[in-house]
Task: inverse folding
């Protein structure tokens, strides 16, 4: 089990020969890492006013459905929904995959679909259905121009992040999330903290991506038979679960809320690891008792404060905490992948577009 060391955001100055960060030779030449590091400037430059027009349409409609597949939906949609619930704003938001959404009556919803390629089969099929039904509020978010999604949407926004070469989506996921969060500006009283804290968040993002991790933590995760993630249903832990498959090639699972201590411990093994993102203080003793004590597995936290577990400690910036948690997870996964000799850019089976529309 990992010891009680803490990897803090200022460890980038550490001189331990065994640790590393994403700017070192063994990491920096991967397209995946380059794209992760570009996220800092994407945050710094993001235009929160670009969606003001559609944000007002959504405010007037009062109902919003967010769809897409994989990384284009998990973190962008769920982080927005979580923030909306915290705000208590009068907007009903739901999300599901586009194929399941074929079965829904979306007549009274503004519908927003995210697809980097603009060619995702499930998304295009749903929007074709909405066009046939005469649905008036169809919006798209993509990284390319001249796509099928753009043709099927009333209004389509194009991300500024540019094309991603790596199979695992990274910088686009964060920009999609920032865009969705910008749709909440009409509901936020006073100055939006995401606008006010943009520069600070960009600096914190770089510190998070470049921080050096405790080598014992990396070694423990690198040797794990399975990697579990637990935490809020805000898209962070769930997105990191997907990225664990793509980046480290390890089996992983997302355990929402307290699922980690409600039965699955029966099949967990001492060689497994659980990463708990921003753990609830009221739950940590139960996790320790059930998982560390009962199973004998390692429990590691990603948090802004030290916890009773070995903790990857990150900065906190109002409005951006979920983004920084995600970036800390990226740092962990790259370090684990490199430690295990994985070619981060070339998975054997995973594709950039999971299911591309072919007309």
Result:
């Amino acid at each position: 089990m990992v010891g009680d060391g803490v990897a803090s955001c200022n460890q980038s100055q550490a001189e331990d020969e065994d640790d590393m960060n994403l700017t070192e030779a063994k990491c920096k030449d991967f397209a995946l890492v380059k794209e992760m590091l570009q996220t800092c400037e994407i945050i710094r430059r993001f235009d929160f006013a670009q969606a003001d027009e559609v944000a007002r349409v959504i405010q007037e409609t009062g109902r919003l459905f967010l769809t897409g597949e994989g990384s284009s939906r998990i973190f962008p949609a769920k982080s927005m929904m979580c923030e909306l619930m915290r705000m208590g704003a009068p907007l009903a938001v739901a999300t599901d995959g586009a194929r399941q959404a074929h079965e829904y009556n979306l007549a009274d919803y503004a519908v927003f679909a995210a697809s980097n390629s603009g060619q995702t089969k499930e998304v295009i099929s749903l929007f074709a259905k909405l066009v046939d039904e005469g649905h008036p509020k169809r919006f798209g978010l993509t990284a390319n121009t001249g796509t099928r999604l753009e043709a099927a949407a009333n209004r389509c926004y194009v991300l500024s992040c540019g094309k991603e070469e790596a199979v695992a989506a990274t910088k686009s996921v964060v920009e999609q999330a920032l865009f969705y969060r910008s749709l909440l500006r009409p509901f936020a009283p006073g100055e939006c903290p995401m606008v006010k804290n943009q520069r600070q968040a960009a600096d914190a993002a770089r510190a998070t991506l470049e921080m050096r991790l405790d080598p014992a933590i990396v070694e423990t995760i690198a040797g794990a038979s399975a990697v579990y993630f637990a935490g809020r249903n805000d898209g962070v832990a769930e997105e990191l679960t997907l990225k664990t498959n793509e980046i480290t090639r390890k089996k992983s699972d997302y355990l929402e809320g307290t699922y980690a201590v409600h039965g699955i411990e029966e099949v967990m093994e001492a060689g497994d690891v659980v990463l708990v993102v921003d753990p609830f203080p009221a739950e940590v003793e139960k996790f320790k008792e059930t998982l560390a004590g009962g199973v004998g597995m390692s429990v590691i936290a990603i948090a802004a404060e030290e916890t009773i577990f070995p903790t990857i400690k990150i900065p906190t910036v109002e409005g951006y905490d979920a983004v920084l948690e995600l970036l800390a997870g990226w740092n962990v996964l790259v370090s684990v992948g490199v430690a295990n000799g994985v070619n981060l850019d070339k998975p054997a089976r995973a594709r950039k577009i999971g299911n591309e529309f072919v007309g």
